[in-house]
Structure formats: structure tokens, C-alpha cells
Amino acid sequence: MFYGQGDVFLGISYVQPPIGNLRFKKPERLDKFLSVPYNATYLRPACPQADVPDISEDCLHLNIYTPQANSTDSYGVMIWIHGGSLKQGSAQNYAIPSVIRNFVSRKIIVVIIQYRLGMLGYFTTFTEEFPPNRGALDQIEAIKFVKEEIANFGGNPNKITLVGQSAGAASIAGHLFSPLSQKLFQGAIMQSGSLLTCFDGSMGFQNLSSQRANQLCQFSPEQWNLHNYTSLASCLSKMPYSEWISLDGSLLRGWEMVKDGYFLHDIPRKLMTTRPKIPVMYGNCKDEWSYFGTFWTHLILLFMYL
Fold first, then answer.
1. How does pLDDT run across 182-223, given as a tens digit for each residue?
2. What sign does the CA torsion over 62, 165, 84, 199 have?
3. Domains of the chain and CATH, by start
4. pTM of the full structure
């Protein structure tokens, strides 16, 4: 049964749209809304991904659900970072009645963010053409936006908790370790995910970026190792995202964050020793891996008899 009430603001832009020349660049701050008054009454498209009809590269938006926008109660704030192997998921997945019933009715502000996924968020050459961890940097800008603006929605900017599941939890682990995210939030709740589940610690063990360059632009591994990516940038900057999202749809493991010198400046084992003392609640969703079991049925059957 649905109950509760609140003020809902949908599809708020928090950075410049990552389109045109900004397609594969780090997020740029939004100086002002692109239209005034801003229409925050409808959900915006998801970031490009497989098997979702309503998608767009202009996808860096967030939704705010608050008990009362003009309240002086200074509500606590929960920022939800969705999962999806860094290749899928969106703010569209969360029904407004459920958010109101489970959180807003309990005097909690909920903010659900979107960030670039797959090629647009995590393909990298470790150069200025394709800087690493763009999706994680999108998340940081969303958190900064919330910290700066949430008081205007009745929230307390000094009482922000990051909450996420699967790749969302892995992303939160990255923020716990990252110097770029410090002092932006005060707590974290992580469900079924750690940094190690979405981290390419060898800076090339999976090398999915090199594979995609070869598949999409015939950019060979030999060319990749020469570290000149001008022709690759020319190829991918003009390519419709429809050319690659189907490849991500069949990708089981997903994309990964990498050591980059600014968001994650070292490997998790070393970052762990300098992590700020921020309260963290960690748990696991029931049957979290049952989906992956559908791909590995032969292994599951084998272990049943061992």
C-alpha cells in the first residue's frame, strides 16, 4: 500500500551535458540551468545502455525526493548510486511511490543520481583524449551539487550518506578511498559490492578499452601500445553509441575503475591504510549472484556433486 507525501523534483541537471566536444571528457561544472524556469516534473532518459528504450547522452541528471522543500527541519540526505556493472542502470528504475513510502515518509531526503556508463564513462586511454573513471567523476560532481544545493530542498548538507548496491557499492568504496571525495559525505551504506569487484588493479589485465578500440575502429593492439590516440579519438567522437551498446549488453563482467592518479591514486590495499574514519554499514543482498548463475549453470551443477 502506498502512503506518505513529499515534494519531488525530477531530472535536475548537475553538470554540463556531456555531448559534442564533451563526450569523452571529464564533467564540467554547470554555471546555470539551461532553461529558466527549469522543468523538474518528468524523468529524463537513462544514460546509453543495452535493452533500454529511453536513453540519451544528455543523461547527467538527478532526482530529489524530500518531505518538504521549504522545511527548516534540516533533514538527513541519502544519495543513491545505482548498480549495474558500470554498464547499465538508471534513476528510472526506482518508483516514486516506493521512495516516498520507504524513506521520505520517515523524514529522509533521497537523491538518485545518474552517471555515464560503459564506453562513455569508463573507456580510457589514460590520456586527455579519454581520461579514466569519467563515470566516477560524474558521481563526485553530483555529490558536490547535492552538498551545495540540498539546503534549498530542506536538507542538511553536513548529514549526507552515500548508499548503493553492487557496482553502486563499489563506486562508494572508491569515494571512501578517493581524495577527491573527502568531506563531501559523512557516512556510507554498501550492499553487495566492494572496490575489488569493479577495479582493474593491473591497469590493463582485462584491457577492455583496447578490445573496444580494435572492434569499433580497427585500432590494433600495436597501435594502442604506441600511445598515439588521435585517430582513435576521431573515430569514436563521431560514432553513434548504438554501435557499441550491444557489445556491453553481452558483457558479463562489466566495466571497471582504474588507478588514475587523481580519483584512485593507488591500489585498494594501499588506499585502505589512509581511508578517513567514516562510518560504513556493509551488507549483502539475498541471492545477489543468482543472475550470474544463469551463465554458469555447468559450474553450479558440478559443485553440487563435489
1. 999 999 999 988 888 888 865 444 589 999 999 999 999 999
2. positive
3. 7-289 (3.40.50.1820)
4. 0.92
